[in-house]
Design a protein that fits this description.
Length: about 375
């Protein structure tokens, strides 16, 4: 039931081996169902509750809370959960904010209850903007120290997800703001491309630095999105691109995405909002990107039929990572091969009723829960 005699978390080495095998079959299109994780929360833990706070948007950058305290709080939460299907114990440091790498390069994080903003220390013209690696940056050290504390505690028993590093153009927009960057792309395209290249190189450096901490005793990798991977992977994004034309995307965004994706194992893409749909065709042409998470947006878009978008993704032989289920919990009609869908984790209370609900939901997707 436990990883080892000293473990508080109910997940075994055999479960990790099975998780790897299922994902191999899924990527090879040999699985007869989608990827689906079932988490039962509220399980009785064999340890005492943690007195420390979890990482949240409000606490992540509070240097009064030690990395060890964050990890202990996570250990308590994970120990009170049972994992079935493709669910697995992971620590997700997403609450450092979308585009965390901006803090490594000179921005200050501004924490809010539901998000984190990044503000540059000064606004300078694009010609004067240069990005360099600073190994002593206090925000970088904060993040690395939390990964180190997590590995010291769990020794690979828990998967430590990658931070939300941020899209390269999104990072650049943190320093120039969106309006000025749009003007830069017209008036100073070479300078924008120079900054993109500098940021892309640093993106890879930060990604590799964090993975170097966990690689020696790791049972897998993940990103803020939660998809498991045997090798370092990531879900890429460029939220900024909703403001530019397909022609500009192919100059300023597409080449960087392809280059970054080539550094990753089974890279995926976060397609965020209707404004990014004009770029879908360009993204689908990037062979190194293996799946698309389509997020239509809140409000009216949620009520619309996005089968055409899903069909385009499937015709390009990419996995579908969102907008997969009908209201009754079954796959949408446009997804004719369940192996092309990623459903992610679903949470149920560890009670008699919760377990029955979990079994019924899993049964719809050809997953039998032996609970």
């Amino acid at each position: 039931m436990y990883y080892n005699d000293n473990s508080n978390i109910q997940f075994t080495k055999a479960q990790y081996e099975n998780l790897k095998e299922v994902y191999r079959k899924w990527w090879d299109n040999k699985l007869d169902r989608p990827i689906l994780g079932i988490c039962l929360y509220g399980t009785q833990s064999k340890r005492e509750p943690s007195p420390h706070p979890l990482i949240t948007f409000s606490t992540a950058w509070d240097f009064n809370i030690t990395p060890q305290q964050f990890v202990d709080a996570y250990d308590w939460n994970l120990s009170a959960t049972r994992y079935y299907g493709e669910a697995y114990p992971r620590m997700n440091p997403v609450h450092f904010g979308a585009g965390t790498a901006a803090t490594f390069l000179g921005c200050t994080p501004i924490s809010r209850p539901d998000t984190v903003w990044f503000l540059p220390d000064k606004n300078v013209p694009i010609e004067q903007l240069h990005f360099e690696f600073d190994p002593n940056n206090k925000y970088l050290r904060r993040v690395l120290n939390i990964y180190e504390a997590a590995m010291d505690k769990w020794q690979g028993e828990v998967v430590i997800s990658m931070i939300d590093i941020g899209g390269v153009m999104d990072l650049l927009a943190s320093f120039r703001n969106a309006e000025d960057l749009l003007i830069d792309m017209i008036d100073s395209p070479d300078e924008v491309l120079r900054c993109v290249n500098e940021l892309q190189e640093l993106w890879i450096k930060y990604f590799d630095m964090i993975n170097d901490i966990i690689k020696d005793s790791v049972n897998g990798y993940s990103s803020w999105f939660g998809m498991y991977s045997e090798e370092p992977s990531y879900i890429l994004q460029s939220d900024f691109c909703y403001m530019i034309s397909p022609e500009m995307f192919d100059v300023f965004v597409g080449p960087e995405l392809k280059k970054t994706a080539s550094h990753l194992y089974n890279a995926t893409y976060h397609l965020d909002g209707i404004g990014e749909l004009p770029h879908l065709e360009s993204i689908l042409k990037i062979d190194e990107i293996k799946g698309i998470q389509w997020v239509c947006g809140s409000g009216e878009p949620e009520l619309m039929d996005w089968s055409e978008v899903t069909t385009r993704i499937l015709k390009a032989n990419k996995k579908v990572l969102n907008w997969t289920l009908k209201p009754d919990g079954t796959l949408r009609d446009c997804i004719t091969d369940p192996c092309m869908a990623f459903l992610g984790d679903y949470y149920f209370a560890d009670t008699k009723e919760g377990i029955e609900n979990a079994k019924r939901f899993a049964f719809k997707h050809n997953l039998e829960l032996n609970i």
